[in-house]
Amino acid sequence: MDIRVSHCFITVDDHEQALAFYRDALGLEVRNDVSFEGMRWVTLVPPSQPELQITLETVGAGPGASPEDRQRMSELLAKGLLRGLIFVTDDVDAAFERIQASGAEVLQEPMDQPYGVRDCAFRDPAGNMVRLNQAAKAA
């Protein structure tokens, strides 16, 4: 049996700001942009992994979300408490420089971790954490 991830969803509160980060700073490509009844879904793909679709969705985009649910999600998003993404790259230092130059909020500069990766972290404009990992170089 072959099971693979095809889609993941990231909640954002401003799609244009999120596009400046995910498309312009990270280099993802827009695959789809759909608006419906006050909600919006923008699907992006990494050029080297076009089968993985990352969708930026409106806060509380679920059909069963109540106004109270949407408010709570907005509060959690503002605090940076919703889950983010981890990308893999072959040059975390170069990626860090490019993303930092875009003005993205830096959470952690590149550093070697004891669990075998060199990584860095940013916060997207909505507050989601985005990490970039590079496999540690063999000694």
Describe the structure.
This protein is α/β, with parallel strands linked by helices and 139 residues long. It has one domain: 2,3-Dihydroxybiphenyl 1,2-Dioxygenase, domain 1 (Roll), CATH 3.10.180.10. Helices cover 24% and strands 38% of the residues. A four-stranded mixed beta sheet has the order 1-4-3-2, covered by helices on one side. The chain has a four-stranded mixed beta sheet with strand order 5-8-7-6, with helices on one face. A hairpin with a 7-residue loop joins strand 3 and strand 4. The longest helix has 12 residues. The protein is globular.
CATH topology: 2,3-Dihydroxybiphenyl 1,2-Dioxygenase, domain 1
Global mean pLDDT: 92
Strand composition percent:
35-45%
Task: Tell me roughly what share of residues is in helical segments.
Answer: 10-25%
Strand order of the largest sheet: 1-4-3-2
Terminal CA distance: 36 Å
The major beta sheet can be summarized as: 4 strands, mixed
Domains (count): 1
Oligomerization status of the protein chains: single chain
Count of DSSP H/I helices: 3
What is the name of the CATH superfamily?
2,3-Dihydroxybiphenyl 1,2-Dioxygenase, domain 1
Outline, from the CA principal axes? Answer: globular
List how many beta strands DSSP finds: 8
List keywords for this structure.
four-stranded mixed beta sheet; single chain; 139 residues; alpha/beta; 3 helices; 2,3-Dihydroxybiphenyl 1,2-Dioxygenase, domain 1
